[in-house]
Amino acid sequence: xxxxxxxxxxxxxxxxxxxxxxxxxxxxxxxxxxxxxxxxxxxxxxxxxxxxxxxxxxxxxxxxxxxxxxxxxxxxxxxxxxxxxxxxxxxxxxxxxxxxxxxxxxxxxxxxxxxxxxxxxxxxxxxxxxxxxxxxxxxxxxxxxxxxxxxxxxxxxxxxxx
Length: 162
Known about the structure:
The protein is mostly helical and 162 residues long. The protein has two domains: 3-86, no CATH class; 90-161, Orthogonal Bundle (Arc Repressor Mutant, subunit A). Helix content is 69%, strand content 0%. Helix 6 packs across helix 8. The longest helix has 26 residues, at 61-86. The radius of gyration is 21 Å and the shape is elongated.
Protein backbone atom coordinates (compact mmCIF):
# COMPACT_ATOMS: atom_id res chain seq x y z
CA UNK A 1 0.00 0.00 0.00
CA UNK A 2 1.28 3.42 -0.87
CA UNK A 3 -0.02 6.94 -0.53
CA UNK A 4 -0.54 7.26 -4.28
CA UNK A 5 -3.44 4.81 -4.12
CA UNK A 6 -4.95 6.95 -1.35
CA UNK A 7 -4.76 10.02 -3.58
CA UNK A 8 -6.42 8.11 -6.43
CA UNK A 9 -9.25 7.13 -4.09
CA UNK A 10 -9.53 10.73 -2.90
CA UNK A 11 -9.89 11.97 -6.47
CA UNK A 12 -12.54 9.33 -7.16
CA UNK A 13 -14.47 10.42 -4.04
CA UNK A 14 -14.33 14.19 -4.45
CA UNK A 15 -18.04 14.46 -3.70
CA UNK A 16 -17.44 13.03 -0.22
CA UNK A 17 -14.66 15.57 0.34
CA UNK A 18 -16.87 18.45 -0.84
CA UNK A 19 -19.58 17.18 1.52
CA UNK A 20 -17.19 17.18 4.48
CA UNK A 21 -16.11 20.74 3.64
CA UNK A 22 -19.74 21.79 3.45
CA UNK A 23 -20.46 20.11 6.82
CA UNK A 24 -17.87 22.34 8.53
CA UNK A 25 -19.20 25.43 6.72
CA UNK A 26 -16.36 25.81 4.24
CA UNK A 27 -18.15 26.81 1.06
CA UNK A 28 -16.95 27.21 -2.53
CA UNK A 29 -17.43 30.98 -2.25
CA UNK A 30 -14.53 31.27 0.25
CA UNK A 31 -11.34 32.49 -1.37
CA UNK A 32 -9.34 29.81 0.49
CA UNK A 33 -11.69 26.94 -0.45
CA UNK A 34 -9.09 25.31 -2.72
CA UNK A 35 -6.54 25.33 0.12
CA UNK A 36 -8.95 23.49 2.38
CA UNK A 37 -9.89 21.10 -0.43
CA UNK A 38 -6.22 20.20 -0.93
CA UNK A 39 -5.77 19.65 2.80
CA UNK A 40 -8.85 17.40 2.78
CA UNK A 41 -7.45 15.36 -0.12
CA UNK A 42 -4.21 14.83 1.81
CA UNK A 43 -6.12 13.83 4.94
CA UNK A 44 -8.24 11.42 2.87
CA UNK A 45 -5.16 9.78 1.34
CA UNK A 46 -3.42 9.40 4.71
CA UNK A 47 -6.57 8.01 6.30
CA UNK A 48 -7.04 5.55 3.43
CA UNK A 49 -3.51 4.25 3.84
CA UNK A 50 -3.81 3.80 7.61
CA UNK A 51 -7.28 2.22 7.32
CA UNK A 52 -6.10 -0.31 4.72
CA UNK A 53 -3.14 -1.31 6.87
CA UNK A 54 -5.34 -1.77 9.92
CA UNK A 55 -8.61 -3.13 8.51
CA UNK A 56 -9.41 -5.10 5.35
CA UNK A 57 -13.17 -4.45 5.54
CA UNK A 58 -13.72 -1.41 3.29
CA UNK A 59 -17.51 -1.31 3.75
CA UNK A 60 -17.27 1.12 6.68
CA UNK A 61 -14.49 3.25 5.22
CA UNK A 62 -16.59 6.06 3.70
CA UNK A 63 -18.42 6.98 6.92
CA UNK A 64 -15.13 6.68 8.81
CA UNK A 65 -13.19 8.97 6.44
CA UNK A 66 -16.07 11.46 6.29
CA UNK A 67 -16.04 11.79 10.09
CA UNK A 68 -12.24 11.96 10.13
CA UNK A 69 -12.34 14.79 7.55
CA UNK A 70 -14.94 16.70 9.55
CA UNK A 71 -12.89 16.42 12.74
CA UNK A 72 -9.58 17.37 11.15
CA UNK A 73 -11.07 20.28 9.18
CA UNK A 74 -12.79 21.54 12.33
CA UNK A 75 -9.45 21.37 14.13
CA UNK A 76 -7.80 23.32 11.29
CA UNK A 77 -10.46 26.02 11.49
CA UNK A 78 -10.01 26.28 15.26
CA UNK A 79 -6.23 26.51 14.92
CA UNK A 80 -6.55 29.18 12.26
CA UNK A 81 -8.93 31.18 14.46
CA UNK A 82 -6.61 30.86 17.46
CA UNK A 83 -3.65 31.89 15.32
CA UNK A 84 -5.53 34.89 13.97
CA UNK A 85 -6.75 35.90 17.43
CA UNK A 86 -3.25 35.61 18.90
CA UNK A 87 -1.48 37.36 16.02
CA UNK A 88 -3.82 40.30 15.65
CA UNK A 89 -1.06 42.29 17.38
CA UNK A 90 -2.46 45.53 18.66
CA UNK A 91 1.01 47.07 18.74
CA UNK A 92 0.56 48.40 15.21
CA UNK A 93 -3.23 48.48 15.13
CA UNK A 94 -3.53 51.88 13.48
CA UNK A 95 -7.30 51.55 13.45
CA UNK A 96 -7.26 52.42 17.17
CA UNK A 97 -4.81 55.30 16.80
CA UNK A 98 -6.37 58.75 16.30
CA UNK A 99 -5.80 60.15 12.82
CA UNK A 100 -3.77 63.05 14.21
CA UNK A 101 -1.20 60.58 15.53
CA UNK A 102 -0.97 58.56 12.29
CA UNK A 103 1.14 61.29 10.75
CA UNK A 104 3.69 60.67 13.52
CA UNK A 105 4.72 57.28 12.13
CA UNK A 106 7.77 58.86 10.57
CA UNK A 107 9.92 55.88 11.58
CA UNK A 108 8.61 53.93 8.56
CA UNK A 109 11.17 53.63 5.75
CA UNK A 110 8.78 53.25 2.82
CA UNK A 111 11.56 52.22 0.43
CA UNK A 112 12.22 49.05 2.44
CA UNK A 113 8.61 47.91 2.07
CA UNK A 114 7.31 45.90 -0.89
CA UNK A 115 4.25 47.12 -2.78
CA UNK A 116 2.09 44.46 -1.12
CA UNK A 117 3.37 45.45 2.33
CA UNK A 118 2.56 49.10 1.62
CA UNK A 119 -0.95 48.07 0.56
CA UNK A 120 -1.43 45.97 3.71
CA UNK A 121 -0.21 48.86 5.87
CA UNK A 122 -2.54 51.32 4.16
CA UNK A 123 -5.62 49.17 3.52
CA UNK A 124 -5.59 46.81 6.50
CA UNK A 125 -4.08 48.80 9.34
CA UNK A 126 -5.08 52.34 8.40
CA UNK A 127 -8.37 51.78 6.55
CA UNK A 128 -9.52 48.70 8.49
CA UNK A 129 -10.16 46.50 5.44
CA UNK A 130 -10.03 42.79 6.25
CA UNK A 131 -7.18 40.66 4.94
CA UNK A 132 -9.70 38.39 3.21
CA UNK A 133 -11.03 41.30 1.16
CA UNK A 134 -7.51 42.44 0.31
CA UNK A 135 -6.59 38.85 -0.62
CA UNK A 136 -9.49 38.62 -3.06
CA UNK A 137 -8.51 41.94 -4.61
CA UNK A 138 -4.89 40.85 -5.11
CA UNK A 139 -5.79 37.24 -5.99
CA UNK A 140 -3.84 35.91 -2.98
CA UNK A 141 -4.83 33.58 -0.19
CA UNK A 142 -5.66 35.08 3.21
CA UNK A 143 -3.04 32.75 4.68
CA UNK A 144 -0.38 34.34 2.46
CA UNK A 145 -1.50 37.84 3.41
CA UNK A 146 -1.33 36.96 7.12
CA UNK A 147 2.25 35.82 6.50
CA UNK A 148 2.98 39.09 4.66
CA UNK A 149 1.32 41.08 7.47
CA UNK A 150 3.50 39.38 10.08
CA UNK A 151 6.62 40.09 8.01
CA UNK A 152 5.51 43.72 7.73
CA UNK A 153 5.05 43.94 11.50
CA UNK A 154 8.53 42.52 12.04
CA UNK A 155 9.97 45.15 9.68
CA UNK A 156 8.00 47.91 11.40
CA UNK A 157 9.28 46.82 14.80
CA UNK A 158 12.86 46.85 13.51
CA UNK A 159 12.37 50.32 12.00
CA UNK A 160 10.83 51.59 15.22
CA UNK A 161 13.82 50.31 17.27
CA UNK A 162 16.30 52.35 15.23
